[in-house]
């Protein structure tokens, strides 16, 4: 039995998570995976019900779980709360030791016209951003006064080495190229980052390494995205660049992510936010959450099922069954049902077993 803690969260979170869980349940029942799901409050809804974004019961459940599936957190309702919903996410990542965030983004064949870039520029783009997740400005000392504010950015050799290893190992299963992104011409942390990444690269002589300053990387992502394979970078840069990369495929709603650590624990979530403006209206795109569910399957060793869910999701979208953000007319529930219908057919045809 594999225990999955489900954190629907806020806004569109419950809608998109429901579709992903339904896909996982279908695969589990059909292939004997033995997935068991347990839902807990997290984020703004937890503030409303328990006074904090990460209640002790939720944290303990996540620590005891095999994996965690998250929807989205936050919204203007909690802008003036003593503790914002997003603070719960930072605490959860820290508590679970999740230092590596993997965000894959690609332009699906035949959907180049949906990209804001020219089709010939977007065609073939397939990038994995490996973002350091527990260091940098987000976790440094903070000072906020009436006329002065300070955010401390700090990195250690160990933090840089371990995220670099994740990137190089990932590149070995892709096109064997790592681009390390920093701001070495200005920041002390980047002056530490670059030579350490170069030291780690020596362990992977079969993987090419190059470097880009973050401003140049941002420009190259929209002018020649196919030049990238794996990008490794620090927390803030990775957050911004992966969001930039996400829209190249046509919608931020398409992309999932995995946050991983040294142990078996892993947190899987779409990269988009809670979109409170469309919450409860059946307008959300659950594709990113379903893609996250496929990454979860991969991480528990169910690679065959993961590849099947990925391929079915892609095939559903490219066949024309799409949500409104991709120019289609399906709502969140109808799109999820379309994926499961295609998934049932694929399971029957392939007779996949755990």
Secondary structure topology:
Layout: E1 2-9, H1 13-31, E2 35-39, H2 44-50, H3 56-64, E3 67-72, H4 85-96, E4 100-106, H5 119-122, E5 126-132, E6 142-144, E7 149-151, H6 157-172, E8 177-182, H7 188-201, E9 208-213, H8 214-223, E10 230-233, H9 235-246, E11 256-260, E12 266-270, H10 287-299, H11 303-318, H12 332-350
Parallel strand pairs: 1-2, 1-3, 3-12, 5-10, 8-9, 8-10
Antiparallel strand pairs: 4-5, 4-11, 6-7, 11-12
The CATH architecture name of the largest domain reads: 3-Layer(aba) Sandwich
User: Mean pLDDT, nearest integer?
Assistant: 95
Secondary-structure content class: alpha/beta
CATH fold name of the largest domain: Isopropylmalate Dehydrogenase
CATH secondary-structure class of the largest domain: Alpha Beta
User: Which descriptor suits the 3D outline?
Assistant: globular
> What name goes with the CATH superfamily of the largest domain?
Isopropylmalate Dehydrogenase
SSE arrangement, N to C: EHEHHEHEHEEEHEHEHEHEEHHH
Fraction in beta strands: 15-25%
Q: Ranges with pLDDT <50 over ≥5 residues?
A: none
Number of strands: 12
What is the domain total for the residues? 2
Q: Biggest β-sheet, characterized?
A: 10 strands, mixed
The N- and C-terminal alpha carbons lie at a distance of 12 Å
